[in-house]
Amino acid sequence: MSSSPQTGHTESARPAEPVGNRPLPPGVVGLAALERGQRTERRKSAPSGTLIVGEGIQVKGKIESCQRLVVEGHVEAAMSADALDVLAKGMFEGTAEVENAEIAGTFDGTLTVRGQLTIKDSGRVSGTILYGRILIEAGGEISGDIDTARAADARNVGDLADVVAS
Fold first, then answer.
1. pTM of the model as a whole
2. pLDDT of residue 48
3. For residue 20, what pLDDT is reported?
4. Which is it for the CA torsion 58, 61, 65, 66, positive or negative?
5. Cα angle at 30 between 28 and 31, to 5 degrees?
6. CA 3 and chain centroid, separation
7. Which residues touch 1 (CB under 8 Å, ≥6 apart)?
8. Contact indicator for 66, 83 with CB cutoff of 8 Å
9. Sequence spans of domains, the chain
């Protein structure tokens, strides 16, 4: 539950209302503090299985059964999905294991990207980061314990071999 800054009333998270005369596609949940007319075009074309945490919304906990997480607000969570998009005003804190990630906002925690990690020019990524491929735009920042997923897998296989040999 969250308190609306406009009304001060407590509201629970619920599926987003239709945008204009068009409902959101099946399987799309949007959480936003914005008025209906202010919702972004991204919500209208979001694929099924997408969770959008809108600007002004804070979500804490474990996120399951999500194919794509789009963060415009603040998320503190553990999650596994196909894709993670942290937009310019968004912040993700916690643990994420995804196929692909695009960070234009802030990510702080443990991030495992099996495919491509893209850090946009406004993106800030810190913590423990494993990636398959990486693209950092000029101005993007990354810091912490950083390695390729391949190198981490090779270390884990080596550690397992040591255990088996002893």
1. 0.69
2. 77
3. 45
4. positive
5. 155
6. 23
7. 10, 11, 12, 13
8. no
9. 26-158
